[in-house]
Amino acid sequence: MAFEIIKQKFGELTEYVLQESESGNRCVIIPELGGIVRQLSLRKGLTLFSVIKTPPTPLSLQEDTKSASELLFPFASRIPDGQYTFLGKKYQLSKNETGRRNAIHGLVRKHPFKLEEQIVHPDFASIKLSFHLDNTEGYPFQVRFFVTYKLSADGKFTVSYSAINEGHEPCPVMFGWHPYFMLGNEDVDAWKIDIPSSQIVKFDDNMIPQGVAPFNEQLPMLLYKNELDNCFIINTESAAVTTRLISDNQHVTLNIEQETGEGKFNYLVLYTPPTRDCIAIEPLTGNVDAFNNGEGLNILAKGHTVDGTITVHLS
């Protein structure tokens, strides 16, 4: 098995391709556009599946408003009116959600990340990126954010993040990843999904949490004519849980595993866009509006770090 990392142009953008020659497994990363994963291809048997959907051209990718594959930090999902209170102080974020009045999906989207490290090993290839938040509008804290993408010989792709408080005061942090997954050319209606949760978050008309309800659907759940835009709570004593996206027609299952436990990925957002050719499966470390409700919010003291890992593979 031979791994390599190739640097190449995608329009005016520069991207890095991590790939393994024998299997054809590959991922494509764009550091200067929020450090996103533009492509991810994984093999099962004779078939190489493209499993992440992003806009197809450099311009459409730069102009994308649907957060395809974006890293969501220091908060994910919505903060109503962009306002939150932390340790008795009120803060105002920019209200950037299209058609609504909320702040959404953090402060690192579409910003250039710094390339920290590239590793090519007989058993894997990896790339590490960073972004420094320093007294950003509405978030007057100093936090260094890292993400490492790793493609391994066992066919697994991992997204590992960490964040360290480099300031003098405690700061709130939350992380999420926003990929749209697909399986070949099938539509969402051909798939089933196994959701590792028995509790669903109730939303108001502004998609802000208003409590919790039991989630009693029979699993795996058919996605046929089923529209999802929901957040689920992960309650488990295990170190990780897996969301499974199942195509019976193609005899393949996409597994998205998220670390669980204190400070880890204990929430999950699922969304089926109107195109119904993909599904967003978004592991989160906190609930929607965690900056206000505190549910899953990590509070970092000076010099402290938080981290977690998401793993994607086919079976």
Automatic annotation (TrEMBL):
BP GO annotations: galactose catabolic process via UDP-galactose, Leloir pathway; glucose metabolic process
Keywords for the protein's UniProt record, in alphabetical order: Calcium
Cofactor(s) needed by this chain: Ca(2+)
Entries under SUPFAM superfamilies matching the protein: Galactose mutarotase-like (SSF74650)
Pfam families given in the database record: Aldose_epim (PF01263)
Calcium as UniProt keyword: yes
A GO MF term: aldose 1-epimerase activity
Binding partners and assembly: Monomer.
Protein's name in the database: Aldose 1-epimerase
Biological source species: Dyadobacter luteus
